Amino acid sequence: MQTSPKLNLTPKPAPSITPEQQKTVNRRTFLGFATLGLGALSGVLGWNWLRSQPEKDGVYAPLRSVLEANGSLNENVLYSNTHLAPQYPRSMAAADPRTNGEVGLDEEVELDAWKLTILPPKGGKSLEISFADIAALPKTELVFDFKCVEGWSEIQHWGGVRLSEVFRKYGIDTDFRYVGMATPDKKYYVGLEMASALHPQTLLAYESNGAELSLEQGYPLRLIVPMKYGIKNIKRIGTITLSNERPPDYWAEQGYDYHAGL
Ligand SMILES: Nc1nc2c(c(=O)[nH]1)N[C@H]1C(S)=C(S)[C@@H](COP(=O)(O)O)O[C@H]1N2
Ligand SMILES: [Mo]
User: Fold this and answer.
1) Nearest ligand to the C-alpha of residue 100?
2) Structure confidence at residue 61 (pLDDT)
3) Which of 27, 64, 166, 237 is deepest in the core (most CB within 10 A)?
4) Predicted pLDDT at 121
5) Residue 42: inside a domain, yes or no?
6) What digits encode the pLDDT tens for the residues 16-68?
7) 17 within domain boundaries
8) Between the CA of residue 62 and those of 32, 36, 53, 149, 201, what are the distances in Å?
9) What is the number of the ligand closest to the CA of 154?
10) Does 262 or 15 have the greater pLDDT score?
11) Which residues contact 130 (CB under 8 A, 6 or more apart)?
């Protein structure tokens, strides 16, 4: 008599990945896309062909496709919360950190009147959080190399509360795909995928070198998102919006990569 092979119905454990493997994956995907990009630019397709292609968001469409492929990769792989930005001793932090970009910082700010408003996408109730409420949450400090797309970087020391902690404390639904943030006057705005918002180094910062922020640094509260270029580190946050659609993004509208990931 023949015995049928026994079916193994035990579910397979989810593949686990160590930080080391993660690094290798990141390096490989980077090399993969670098090669793809170079291949597209060299003889295979040609610069003239590229130049003849329609533009999308200020970038030739084929290059935009590569950016977008990298983008979805970012959403799925690169922003695992085990991938951390390198940290430095406090002694290495700039004593007088440089500032750059003042869009949305024109109005006067009064700390007592300032509120952080968190808005769900439709119909839901919005939540208003005072500065005192933010400052009462556990503080996280971070010394990292802040990088601007314009080509400068500087080691800086920031203090604030993890955005994930604010979401946890106020019971914010993190099943949404995106988090959008805007200045109170709505002139500067950024969008982040949820994984970046929940990253353990992503802070709502209210201190620089242990002191309150200057107006140019985004007083009273700004975003520090070390896995992204400076453009995503919005200064003077007024509103936070949860959504499943990509929130508008000031620099992405000017043709910069939406994810601006590092
Ligand atoms: N509200 C607002 N936030 C902003 C900007 C801006 O123009 N307005 N510029 C961005 C850019 S391009 C950079 S590099 C960083 C600079 O932050 P810093 O002034 O603390 O160096 O802020 C980002 N956040
Ligand atoms: Mo920047």
Assistant:
1) 1
2) 67
3) 237
4) 82
5) no
6) 555 555 554 455 454 445 545 554 545 555 556 556 666 655 566 666 666 66
7) no
8) 16, 11, 7, 22, 33
9) 1
10) 262
11) 114, 115, 116
Q: Would residue 230 count as lying in a domain?
A: yes
Backbone angles phi, psi at 143, to 5 degrees: -115, 115
Q: Whose CA is nearest to atom 9 of ligand 1?
A: 101
221 occurs within a structural domain: yes
Domain total of the chain: 1
- Identify the residue whose tokens are 């990298």: 70
Structure tokens at 247: 């929130």
Residue 235 C-alpha to ligand 1 middle, in angstroms? 6
Segments forming the whole domain that contains residue 182 = 79-105+112-254
CB 157 within 8 A of CB 209: yes
Which residue do the tokens 């580190």 mark? 233
- The Cα–Cα gap between 248 and 233 comes to 15
Choose between 81 and 144: higher pLDDT.
Answer: 144
pLDDT of residue 74: 62
Check residue 125 and give its pLDDT. Answer: 87
pLDDT at position 6 over 60: no
The Å distance, Cα 88 to ligand 2 centre, comes to: 21
Residue 230 or residue 121, greater confidence: 230
Distance 120 CA to ligand 2 centre (A): 28
Nearest to 91 by CA among 155, 176, 36: 155
Q: Which of 187, 223, 233 to mutate to test the pocket of ligand 1 (most atoms within 8 A of CB)?
A: 233
User: What is the CATH number for 249?
Assistant: 3.90.420.10
